[in-house]
Amino acid sequence: MSHHIADPVVHREHWREPDDDQLRLECGVCGVWGAPENEASSIVALGLHALQHRGQEACGIASVHNSESFFTERHMGLVGEAFGNADLTNRLPGCAAVGHTRYSTAGGSFLRNVQPMFADLDQGGIAIAHNGNLTNFKHIHAQLVSEGAIFQSTSDSEAILHLIARSRKAKIVERFIDALGRIEGGFALVAQTRFKMIGARDPLGIRPLVLGKLGEAWVLASETCALDTMGATFIRDVEHGEVVVIDEEGLTSIKPFAAQAARPCLFEYVYFARPDSIVNGRSVYEVRKEMGRRLAQEFQIEADIVVPVPDSGVPAALGYAQAAGIPFEMGIIRSHYLGRTFIQPSQASRQKGVRMKHSPNKAVLEGKRVVLIDDSIVRGTTSLKLVRAVRAAGATEVHLRSASPQILYPDFYGIDMPERSQLMAATHSMEEMRAILEVDSLGFLSIDGLYEATGAGPRDNTAPQFTDHYFTGEYPTRLLDREAEEGGREMRGKKVSILTVNA
Amino acid sequence: MSHHIADPVVHREHWREPDDDQLRLECGVCGVWGAPENEASSIVALGLHALQHRGQEACGIASVHNSESFFTERHMGLVGEAFGNADLTNRLPGCAAVGHTRYSTAGGSFLRNVQPMFADLDQGGIAIAHNGNLTNFKHIHAQLVSEGAIFQSTSDSEAILHLIARSRKAKIVERFIDALGRIEGGFALVAQTRFKMIGARDPLGIRPLVLGKLGEAWVLASETCALDTMGATFIRDVEHGEVVVIDEEGLTSIKPFAAQAARPCLFEYVYFARPDSIVNGRSVYEVRKEMGRRLAQEFQIEADIVVPVPDSGVPAALGYAQAAGIPFEMGIIRSHYLGRTFIQPSQASRQKGVRMKHSPNKAVLEGKRVVLIDDSIVRGTTSLKLVRAVRAAGATEVHLRSASPQILYPDFYGIDMPERSQLMAATHSMEEMRAILEVDSLGFLSIDGLYEATGAGPRDNTAPQFTDHYFTGEYPTRLLDREAEEGGREMRGKKVSILTVNA
Amino acid sequence: MSHHIADPVVHREHWREPDDDQLRLECGVCGVWGAPENEASSIVALGLHALQHRGQEACGIASVHNSESFFTERHMGLVGEAFGNADLTNRLPGCAAVGHTRYSTAGGSFLRNVQPMFADLDQGGIAIAHNGNLTNFKHIHAQLVSEGAIFQSTSDSEAILHLIARSRKAKIVERFIDALGRIEGGFALVAQTRFKMIGARDPLGIRPLVLGKLGEAWVLASETCALDTMGATFIRDVEHGEVVVIDEEGLTSIKPFAAQAARPCLFEYVYFARPDSIVNGRSVYEVRKEMGRRLAQEFQIEADIVVPVPDSGVPAALGYAQAAGIPFEMGIIRSHYLGRTFIQPSQASRQKGVRMKHSPNKAVLEGKRVVLIDDSIVRGTTSLKLVRAVRAAGATEVHLRSASPQILYPDFYGIDMPERSQLMAATHSMEEMRAILEVDSLGFLSIDGLYEATGAGPRDNTAPQFTDHYFTGEYPTRLLDREAEEGGREMRGKKVSILTVNA
Amino acid sequence: MSHHIADPVVHREHWREPDDDQLRLECGVCGVWGAPENEASSIVALGLHALQHRGQEACGIASVHNSESFFTERHMGLVGEAFGNADLTNRLPGCAAVGHTRYSTAGGSFLRNVQPMFADLDQGGIAIAHNGNLTNFKHIHAQLVSEGAIFQSTSDSEAILHLIARSRKAKIVERFIDALGRIEGGFALVAQTRFKMIGARDPLGIRPLVLGKLGEAWVLASETCALDTMGATFIRDVEHGEVVVIDEEGLTSIKPFAAQAARPCLFEYVYFARPDSIVNGRSVYEVRKEMGRRLAQEFQIEADIVVPVPDSGVPAALGYAQAAGIPFEMGIIRSHYLGRTFIQPSQASRQKGVRMKHSPNKAVLEGKRVVLIDDSIVRGTTSLKLVRAVRAAGATEVHLRSASPQILYPDFYGIDMPERSQLMAATHSMEEMRAILEVDSLGFLSIDGLYEATGAGPRDNTAPQFTDHYFTGEYPTRLLDREAEEGGREMRGKKVSILTVNA
C-alpha cells in the first residue's frame, strides 16, 4: 500500500476580508464510493464547490486507487482554484474519494490543519474528513500525548485518527466505532479506507450529513445542494448517532450509541445551509421565508419598503414582504468581488469597511421608511454600519429585524462564535441595542417563532427538538473541556453564566 | 522627472470561469486629483473595487508624486488582491492617481496590455486609462508604425499615447485634444500629467464618465457607484464630446468637437452598470425595474412565480412581479465562488457547467408555472441550461423573458460580443428560438419599451436618443476598420448585413 | 508551551540538475544553545550554509524561545534563499536552535520529509535533526504502526521521535537514550528540548559530529567548516557512541552503549566533507592531497599535465602533480550556474549533458598527454563523457585515476548510492572498465593507500579503523532490514554477494 | 505577422548576494540562424548558459517561426531556471533565435529592461540583443522623445530600436546600419528579422562577438565558450566595425564605418571572459597564466605558498607558482551556493560577509608566508576581508598581488564600475593601500606586463592596441553624455580628472 501526498500549493496567506461580525462554520464534507474509474475526485470536487459557503479558507481531497494507494492534496484557497483543473483525474485517481472544505479555526491557518487527514494503520490507510467540534478534545489530546502520540496538527480530527490507530479492536470499522465512543460534541464524519466508505453523525445529529446515490455510486455530503451539483439523488439523512458503512456488499447501518432524540442545530436554518438545501426534510429557503413571515406577524410596523441584508437576509425579507404587503426592494447591493480591508483614506471617511461589501442603493432608499432584515445579529458592528449607510442614503426610518432570536451564549460544536462578552445581545438590553444600532425600532424573532418556522411546532421545553443553546443557554451535551476550565461543574442543559447580562 | 514601474505580480494565468455566453465590457476607469498627501492611490483603489463588475481580469494604478515622479503598478487579477494592501501609500505615493480595471480583449491577457499606460513626453509624463474601443484603430496603428512608432501592446490605448507623443502642439492638453481629433469610436478617458488630470468622453457619449468631488479633490469615474464607494459627491456627468481639465486653477471645460446630440450606450442600463449607479441621471435599478414592468405589460401570461436569473435579472424580475402581481421568488441560487470549468465526470452528466454557477431551488420551482427573467439573451446557451435545470427541478411551465430586445448586430465600441453568426436572435426566428430554448413561451422587450423604461420616451427614429445598433443595426459612427475589411463601404447608420437572418 | 510552524514556501519542484552519477549524503546538521537573545536561528543559518554541500534539496530550522515556544520553518531549496532574510530573528526567535539541510531520499522530496522534525511530548516539545540512516528502520516502523503510531513522513527521523514519545522513562534525556538503544545504523543527531540541547553519534561514529563554542554558547555541527563560518571555536569531536547534553549546568557526556572501537566513514575524506574541514583530527584537504601523492606513487606514468575533475578532484590532482612533478592545469572548467537538463538539440549532439557542467579547456589540453584525476568512480557515465570531451579537445592520451578504490558494495548508512548492478567496478573487470571508459590507462588508489593517506596506517584487517564496506564488503553493523529482505541471514562483516562480479 | 510575448515569470526580486566589490559586465548575447525545425531556441539556451558568467540577473530569448511569427520570453533569474525546460521547443519555436543574459543596470531590475527587445516595423518584426553601453544614449534619448518616441524601458537597446524604426531607409538592413551610424560607445549586437540574422560590433571592437557554424546553421555569440557548449565550430571573430548579415544567400560582410584600428577591451582578459574562451585569438586561460608569470617576475618575493582568490585568480596563481617555483595551494575555498547577505549575529562577528563566499583553509595557511593572487582590486573591501581571514587562519605573511594594473578611471562601455571616488587605487597611494589592506607587500601588474601577457607586445602609447582607460585614463571614443555633464569638453584620449589622485 502506498500513500502519495501532494500539498504543492503556494501557501499564500489568507487574503479574504476578515469580517469579524460573521459566524463561521468550520467545515463541509463530502465523499463518493464506487464511482467510475478515476472519477471519484472530480465528483467530490463538484460537491465541495457546492459546499464552499461552509468554508473558504482551505480544501482537500483524498482518493483511494485500486483499494491500495491513497492520494491526498490539500490547498489553501477555494475549491475551484485547487481542484478545478483538468488534470485532477491523474492527480487523484481512484473510484473512492473524500473531501473537505474549511474555514479557519483557532489552530491557525496552517496547511497542516487542512483535511482530509490520513493515517497508515496496520490494516491499511484511512482518510478522514470531519465537520464539527469535539467538546472533550483537550481531555483526549492530553491522554493521547501522555501515551506517546505525536500530533502534527492542532485539529481535533487528528485526535480521532489517533484513537482509531490505538484502538485494540481487530477490524477497521470496529476501531472507528471504538474511537467514536470516546469523543463528545458535534460531528459529521466521512472516512475512506481501502475497501469501505464510512459516514457517521453524532448521537444528537447536531451537524448534518446526507446520503445519496449517483448511478451505482454512493455519496455522502453535508448538504443536499452538494448532491444536486454532483448530479446525485437524495436518499435520506444519515440519522443522528448512525454509522453507515458502504462497501462491495452495499450499505450497512450501525447504531452504536444509546438511543436519544435528535437535536439538530438550528443555525443551519438560520444562516449556514444554502437556501436550496433540504435540511431535516425542510427546504431551507422555505423555512427562512417563514421566519420572515412570522417576523412580520410578531412586529407589525408601518413602512414603505422591506430591504434584505444580502445575500443571507433575502428569503426572510421576501417572506416578510409577502406577509406584510410591503414592497421588497434590493436597497443594498452586495459586491461579490473579494478584497482585503482596503486602506481607508483619511478623507473618504465614514463606514468604509462595510461599503466595500455592501453599497446602499440610494434611488430605492431615499425618503423611505425601511424595514431592514438580517438573518441574525452577532456583535452588531456590521448592522450599525449598514444602518448608517441606509440613513445616509436618505431613509427616513430604519426598523431593524433579526430573523432569529438574540444570540446570548457561545457555541462549542463547530460554530466559530465570538466570546460571550462580544455578543451584543448578551451584554445589552433591547433598548440599549436599539440606541447603539441607531434604529427606530429593533426586533428579534422569538424562539417559538423560529421553531414554528421550521415546521416542528413550538419549542418543547422539556425535550427541545433542536440544538439551540446560543439562544437559550441549554447545552445538549457535556462540555468536558469547558467544564475543566470552569472547575469541573457539569454544564449540560445549564446556562453558561460566565458573564452577567446587563440590565 | 522619474517614472517608477512595478509590475511585480505573479503573472499567473487567468483562471476565472470562461463563460462564453456573457457580454463583457472592457473597462472601468477612475481618477483623483488633489487628494491629501499620498492618498490618491488608495482612493482610486476604492473606486476600482466598485467598478470591478466592469472587468475582473486585470487592473492598474498610476500615481503622480510631487508633480514630478510617476509610479505605476499593473496586475492580473482583482483589485482587492492587487491594491488592498496597507502599503499602497508607499508603493504608489502622490496626490493624483488614475486607475483602470479590465476584462480580456482580443489582444490576449498579457500584462503589457494592462492599463494605465504611460509615456514620458518632452513635456513630462502622462498616464492614461481608457474605456471603450476605437473604430479606426487599425488605420491609426498602421500609420503610426509606418512613421516609426514602436508598439509594446496590442491595445488601442497605446495608439492614443503615440498620437499625443507625436502631436506637434506645444502644450500637453493641446496635444491630448489633437490626438482625440484623430480617433473614432467610443471612449471615456482619464489621464494624469505632472500638473493636471484630464477627462474626456467621445462626441456621442457612448461610454460613460462622471465627475465628483471628495473634499477638495476632484474625482472622475465610469459610474457613480465608484463615487459612492470613494465617499465622493456626484457633481455631474462629463458631457458627450467634453474634455475636462483639472489643475491648480480648478476645472476647465473644453468642447473640441463639432456639436452633436448625445447617444449613450443602452447596454449600460441593460447589463453593464451596477444597479446602484445613476446613469445619465436615471437610477439603473429603477430603469431595470421599469423594463420588467413593461415586459409584464407587453406579454401577459398566467404563471405562479417570477424567477430572476441572478444577479443581473433581479431588478427586472421585481418590476415584472410587481406589475403582474405574481410572487417573486429566488428560484435559482447563484454561487459567488469562482471556479474554472470543473472536469465533468461522465456520470454526473447533464448541464453541469451552469450548475457550478446557478443552482435551481427545487422547493420553490416544483409544480410551478415559472416566468424566468434574464437581462438579455446572447448565444442562448446559458438560457437553455437554465431552462432545463428549472424544468428538472419540477417546473410545469417555463416562460422565458428577456428584459431587452433581440441582439442582432455586433458592437465595435467596447462590448466584447460574439460574432454575428453566434448571436441567437440574428440567426433564428422567434419560433425557432422558442423551440431551441425548450420554453413554453419566449418574449423580448420591445425597443420602444426599453426606450420608455429609460424615461427618454419612445425611440426617435430620425435621431435616436441612444446608441442601440446591437438591436437595430444603426451604427452611430463610421466604422473605418470594419469598412476597410468590407471593401470600404460606409456603414454608419446602416445595418451590417454580413449574415442573412434566417426566416 | 506552544509550537509555531511556518512552512510558507512555494513548494516548487526541485529543479537542480539530476546527476545520477554522483554520490549524495543525505544531511548536514547543526545546533546552537545559549546564543544571545534571538540570535540562535541566524547562527544556525550560517552553519547550514557552510554545510550546504551535504544537501541542497531542502532545509529547516527549529528554534526554542524562552524555554517555552518552538518555532519551525522548513523549505525546499537552498539555505540562502530560505534563511538569508533579515527577518529571521523575528520568524525564529530564541537562544537555542537546531537546523538541517538535506538531499532527497527515497521517500521523495515532500516538504513533510524535511527536518527538523518536532513532537510535543508530555514533558514538552522536542525538535530533532538527523544525519544518517537506520538499518532497522522498517522493523521499527512496522512495530510502531502496529502499536498505533501515525507517521506523517517517510523519514526514519520520525521513527526516532516516536520511540522517544513512547518511551516509559520519566525524563526527556532518558527517553532519548532509551530510543537510541532501539535503533541501529549510522547517525549523528542534534536535538533541542525546552531546556537542553542533545547531541549523539552512533556507536561506531560512522557519521561525523563536532562540538564547538561561540562565546558562551555551545555549538554542534556535522563538520568543522560550519564552526568556522559561524565564528565558533572547535572544541572536540563528539565521540562514537557518545551522547552530549548541554544545559544551564554545562555539558554532560553520557556513553550509553557498550564500548567499541570507532569506525568513521572513509567517504567523508574521499568526497563528502568540505576540503577546509578537519575530520577525525585530519585536514580533509591534506588527506586528499596525500591520496593524490600516493596515487602518483602507485601508478607511475609519463604525461604532460595533471587535470582534476573540478571541484572534488582538485586537491588529489595537486598532490599528484607535486609528487609526480607534472604540471597541474585546470583543463576542465566547471560552471557553477545550476540548470536542469537542457533540451539537447539534435544537431548539437555529443556529450552535451556533461558540457553543461564541465567544459574542456582546449588551449590547455590540445596535444597533451593528460592524467585525469577524479575522487571516485561510481557508474562511470560522467567519467566517459569527460574523457571524450578531453579527447575531443585534442588530448593525445588520457590516463584516468580514481583517488579512491573501486566501489563494489552498496551503503546503508546514509550515502545515496546506486544499486550494486549500477556500480561500474562491481560488474566489470579492470580491462573492461578501461575499454568502456575509452582511456589509455585506468587506476584506482589501493585500500591501503587510502588508509595511509588518512594517517591511520595500513588497514587493520582484523579491526579496520574505518567504515569501508563500499570498497571491501565488510559491513560494520547488522543490517536488519536488508537481512529480512535477504531471508534473515546476518550480514555484518560479510560481503554482500547479491551480484557476481565479472571476471 | 504576429508577435507572441510571454513573460510569465514570477517577477521575484533579485536575491543574489549584492557584492559591491565586484565588476559586472552587463550582458552576453547569442544567436542562431538556420537551425533544424524549432531547435533554435534550445541551441540559444545552451549558449546563454555558457555565457551566464556575463550576467545572472535576467535572460531572454526571441525566436522567429516560419519567417513570420516572433515569440519572446524574458525572465528574471538564471538561464537554467528560465529555459532549461523540455517544453522550450513549443514555447519558442522556429529556426532562428536570439538570446541575452544580463546583470542589473542603473535602470533597475525591471522585467521590461530585459532583452531581447522587439519592435514591429513596417517591414516586419525585429528582435535585438545588445551587449555594451552607448556613450551618447542620453543625447539620442532626448532627441527621440522630442520627436514623439515612447520608451518602455530605460535601456539603451530600446534607443537602437527606435532609431531603426524611424530610419527613412527602405530596407531593414539599411535601417539597422543607419541606426548604428547614430550611436557611439561599445556594442555587440545580434538581431533577428523575419528573414535575416544581423551581427554588429562597434568600430573599435570594444565588446566581443564571434561567429561560428553548427552544421548548416550560423551562430553568433559573445564568447567562444558559448560556441563550444552549443557544439558549434568557431569560424572567426566578427571584426571591429563589421556588420554581418546572414540569410538564405549566406553571409554578407558590411563595413559601414570609417576604418580604424581595433581596440578591444582588456578587461575581457583580466576578468570577464571565461578561461576556456579564445578572445582575439588568444586563450584567456593562457593569457591569465602569463599575467601570473609576469607578476612573479615583476615582484620577486620569498614565500611558502601561492594562493588564488578563487575562481578568477586561479590561472594567474598557477602561472605565478610555476614561474616562481612556489607551491600552488587552494588556501581559500569558495562556496558556490548562492545566498543573500545573511544576518550577522552579534557574536559571530568579524568579516562574516566574505566568509559566506570564501572560507580560509586553515590546514594550508597555518604558519605560511602567503602570496595571495587576485585578478584585480576595485574598492579593496573584499581584499581586506580575505587578507584578515587568511591571517586569522595562521598565515605569517600575506603578499597581495593584483594580476592587473591599478584601476583609476571609470568605464562607460558596459562595465558596471563604482564611482571614481570608490576606486581604491584612484584615491590612495601604494603605501596607503598596503597599510589599509593590512598586507606585508602589495603589487599590481604593470600595464606593459599586461599588454605583453596578451601577446600584443608592449603598449603602443601612440596607438594603444587595447581599450585600457580604466588603467590609463585614455578613453578611445567621445563620451557625449559625460561631456555634456562636464560642460561639453571633449574627453576622448584624455584622462578624466574628476578627482585628484592622492599623493
TrEMBL record, chains A, B, C, D:
Binding site for Mg(2+): 312, 374-375
Pfam families in the cross-refs: GATase_7, Pribosyltran
Cofactor: record remark: Binds 1 Mg(2+) ion per subunit.
Enzyme active site: 27
The reaction(s) this protein catalyses: 5-phospho-beta-D-ribosylamine + L-glutamate + diphosphate = 5-phospho-alpha-D-ribose 1-diphosphate + L-glutamine + H2O
InterPro entries documented for this protein: GATase_2_dom, Ntn_hydrolases_N, PRTase-like, PRTase_dom, PurF, PurF_N
Highest taxon of the lineage: Bacteria
Presence of the UniProt keyword Secreted in the record: no
Sequence ranges assigned to domain Glutamine amidotransferase type-2 in this UniProt record: 27-249
Metabolic or biological pathway, per its Swiss-Prot or TrEMBL entry: Purine metabolism; IMP biosynthesis via de novo pathway; N(1)-(5-phospho-D-ribosyl)glycinamide from 5-phospho-alpha-D-ribose 1-diphosphate: step 1/2
EC top class, as a word: transferase
EC number(s) on file: 2.4.2.14
Cofactor list: Mg(2+)
Keywords, alphabetical: Glutamine amidotransferase, Glycosyltransferase, Magnesium, Metal-binding, Purine biosynthesis, Transferase
Family membership: In the C-terminal section; belongs to the purine/pyrimidine phosphoribosyltransferase family.
Role summary: Catalyzes the formation of phosphoribosylamine from phosphoribosylpyrophosphate (PRPP) and glutamine.
Name the record gives this protein: Amidophosphoribosyltransferase
Organism name: Brevundimonas terrae
